[in-house]
Write a structure and sequence with these properties.
The structure holds three protein chains of three kinds. By secondary structure, chain B is an all-alpha fold. Helices cover about 75% and strands about 0% of the residues of chain B. Chain B contains 14 helices and two strands. In chain B, strands 1-2 form a two-stranded antiparallel sheet. Chain B is globular. The chains are: A mainly alpha, B mainly alpha, C alpha+beta.
Amino acid sequence: MKNRGLLFYAFAYLAFLYLPVLVLPVFSFNNSEFIAFPLSGFTTRWYAALASDGAMQHALGNSLKVGIVTALLSTILGLSAARAVTRYRLRGAGAALGFISLPLFIPDIVLGLSLLLLLGAAGLPLSLAAVVLGHLLVCVPFALTVLIARFEGFDRNLDEASADLGEDGWMTFWRVTFPLMLPGIVASLLLTFITSFDEFLLAYFLSGTEATLPVYIWGQLRFPERLPMVLALGAIILGASVGLVILAEYVRNLGARKPMVGA
Amino acid sequence: MADGERNSGEGYVLLSPTLVVMGLALAAPLLLMTLTSLKSQQGLSFGEGWTLAQYGAVLGKASYRALFIRSVVISGAVTAATVCLAYPIAYFVAFHARRKFLWLVALTVPFWTSYLLRVFAWKIILGFDGVINSGLMRLHLIGQPLGFLLYNPFAVVVTLAHAWAAFAVLPIYVSLEKIDRSLLEAASDLGDGAVRRFLRITLPLSLPGVIGAAILIFVPTTGDYVTPALVGGTQGTMIANLIEVEFNGVGNWPLGAALSLVSMAMVAVIAGLFVAGARAVARSAR
Amino acid sequence: MSFLSLSGIRKSFGGLAVVNDVSLEVARGEFFALLGPSGCGKTTLLRMIAGFETQDNGTITIDGEAMNAVPPHQRPTNMVFQSYAIFPHLNVFDNIAYGLRKRKLPRDALRAKVEAMLATVRLEGLGGRAADQLSGGQRQRVALARALIREPKLLLLDEPLGALDKRLREAMQLELRAIQRQIGITFLLVTHDQEEALSLSDRVAVMESGRILQVAAPRTLYERPNCRQVADFIGEMNFFHATVRQITDAEVTVNAGILGIVTFPRANLAPGITVDQHILLAIRPEHVRFADSGVAGEIADATFLGARSHFHVRVAGRTEPVAVSGHAAPSRGTVHLAFPPDRLIGLPTDD
């Protein structure tokens, strides 16, 4: 009986979660400039309009650039830090980890503005590179969390077994450590890419003239006639994100048991 | 492990690039922020010398104090709402759901969208001509659109509670999942009914997850900018909006810096008090 | 010349000497065991031979070659880890073939070798099985096969059977012995299970607190332990305090308290013991006899163990009961115990 009540609550909660998210696709196909009921018929013209929106595509390109660079850099930095902390007994490891995770507890407005101050003091311009630096701040802790968890679940003996069987440090990394870390690396890349891609506030302060996609969208929000297009864009991003996550899960399960020598 | 003892030098080498980058991107800027807060704004540049005048202004002005209080109250409401709403679903997935992984995925998928878009979606939903109002009017449930849905603290709380939902569900779920089921069986065996058992065993043991979730949500929410800016109107502005004004164009950077640091300190103190309080309560309840 | 030679090995962790001046010789083709309780240093010693730890002092020599500067992946040793360390992302075939990559064997030769090894460890046909679908016993055999296929000069086994249940463990012990005899490689086994060490090995080194107490064949360790720790660790032993009265070429006479004046063969006395010295007189439970006359006692409890029964007999003048292992007690109540002199052993006391 309690189950029934909880079950109902669970579905109601899901409905609450998905409501705003579903607004995007629903009204992106709505043949009206006004985001309100009643619905006015099906159309794809908002999507078509996106295809010819040069500014949007440029911003999209910027976001992809920043996202990919951020994902790679934060994963690499996360990898080396995670390995350092789990493989070696380092004094002050706890403090170092706390310091690296600090950005998660500082509001991004403070992060963004202090970086702004830094750039100003150093005489550096606002740019996509500055955005990458800001994004690293928030993405490295995520990468670190994912990778540390992966490293800790690792049987230490595996490295030794590989050495025992004749492989030196590099080959051991390549044949044992890397394949086993791969799911964690993929997860980290994915998580940091999406975090960077969706990140607005830091980009808003640091991007200067080259807008990323969220900054572009922010700019469009003050124009009501652009709203359906924004929704169409949002719906595409939603679909792509979900698809990406599913793909990542699939790849992860696929790569789990691939033999390296033909049997 | 001797491996670690012998080669800890290697370990430091591995750790250093990350520390350097984070030091550059975090420590140096925050230091600058602190230094800036100790200056005064004169025209388009900073005045000579150091001063605590900004802090005086921040702590002295009544409107600032009111803004701080409102921000804290809103974050507190968001935290409470999010955690309370999340607990039952986390409980459901941990104890009653059969395909847990599927549920967890279903619960996190909405958060793979841009935060900005989700806030904007709420604006559309709550607006005067928005989804809720037009829907309710269409169904003839109301005659006039509801005006209280948007551009006030209520809208901010609803939007943020939605935005942080997953961050509450997951930690609470994890701590519930970790509870050894045999403890619950022992409680039943010793005479506790379902409600008692929940209050005496499940709830206390899941408290670390709940506290973690609360801190995780409260701390960043006080400094949120986007949600109050889009759906808060004038009644629902928070600290971040004021800080942004000061840093924009011809604002008062030192004042903005002081506002930032004071708000961070305030949040840290509140969070610290909360954790200490929760621990004290937990200890006394034993 | 011995095959594996350890000389003056010392290793400390954080100021604590884990291995304290250990020297050892193992012959080619021997099945040798390092036996001792947890924390005695046996695993550390094994890891130093494998190259995963470096000794603070001393030399390790394998087949005439000093190993001091040689890293683990270049040593002629292979190890079976306690946790087996099976690579989870490779199947059985690839796990076993892992160490052969460098030899660049043609595909057919490689397959033949792996299949032969699979047969040796009785895992035929399981080459394609995924690592996470193996039972404990199967994983153990994969770990063994993976190490053996490289034909190391020395195979190191770190408590390989600890994680298996009793029946499986005993079966695997027999298989290990058979494989070793078949292949002829020198095996060095580390274990805390004395039954395992005694049943498998040609010789055993008993270790405690970083030192080697005694190195001998299993039977010698059992019948002629050289000190109380070894006597106590291997099987069960009754100890009585005694003082040496007289030593001749053939016999030793002692005053053994409740046992009275006892004479036993000189050969059973540990070396270096002199007249008037306090010693421990020791005898195994299975050698104590129930008799019509002798030391009187009461049976405190009896445990039926199938083939034998185990008794605890309370004897006047002694807090600890005497352990007797035999077929049946003659009667309830008072019994008499006889201690055949040729089964008595004289050991130094702990001081």
